[in-house]
Amino acid sequence: AADKESSPPPEECLQLLSRATQVFREEYILKQDLAREEIQRRVKLLREQKKKQVEDLDCCREERKSLREMAERLADKYEEAKEKQEDIVNRMKKVLRSFHSQLPVLSDSEKDMKKELQTIQEQLRHLGNAIKQVKMKKDYQQSKMEKGNSPQKP
Q1: pLDDT (tens digit per residue) in 30-41
Q2: Dist. CA 126–CA 122, nearest whole Å
Q3: Do the beta carbons of residue 56 and residue 147 sit within 8 Å?
């Protein structure tokens, strides 16, 4: 009988329960909703960043492929030019030996040919340097791509 007298009336219990429910909604559920919205916003942002990074990676791969193809073409041109130079040099040596036995001094055409050979040799040197630069760029990009891919490996 003493317990019944000390317990609050049902209306007061209902008010207390309603207030507790209201506090729970305000303090916990609303904060959880805000946290969920923030997490969803962050997930969306991260997905967009990932998409951009994947696009950038694809672009780098295409550029690397293009550089490789260009390096191969330059190497082929270099080899062709080198072979042509060797042929011309051999022909010139033959011509020079032939003329040298007949003439004590170089003729104008021989002087012109000598200048042409020197020009070709200079061009080959420049092509060689260009190929070295392209190879260095290719190796640099390849190492960058490998470094970029290594943390993502499972």
Answers
A1: 888 889 999 999
A2: 6
A3: no
Range of the domain at 135: 106-147
Q: Is 52 a domain residue? A: no
Q: pLDDT band for position 1 (50/70/90)? A: very low
Burial class, 152, CB count within 10 angstroms (exposed 0-12 / middle 13-18 / buried 19+)? exposed
- Identify how many contiguous H helices and E strands the chain contains and give both numbers: 4, 0
**Do the domain assignments include residue 69?**
no
CA distances 118 to 63, 68, 77, 121, Å, are 35, 30, 18, 5
Look at residue 114 and tell me if it is in a domain.
yes
* Domains identified in the chain, total number: 1
3-state class (DSSP) for residue 154: coil
What DSSP string runs through 88-153? HHHHHHHHHHHHHHH-SS--HHHHHHHHHHHHHHHHHHHHHHHHHHHHHHHHHHHHHHHHHHGGG-
Higher pLDDT, 21 or 5: 21
With contact defined as beta carbons under 8 Å apart, do 142 and 57 qualify?
Answer: no
Residues 84, 86, 88: CA angle, nearest 5 degrees: 70
Determine, yes or no, domain membership for 143. Answer: yes
Q: What is the pLDDT of residue 2?
A: 47
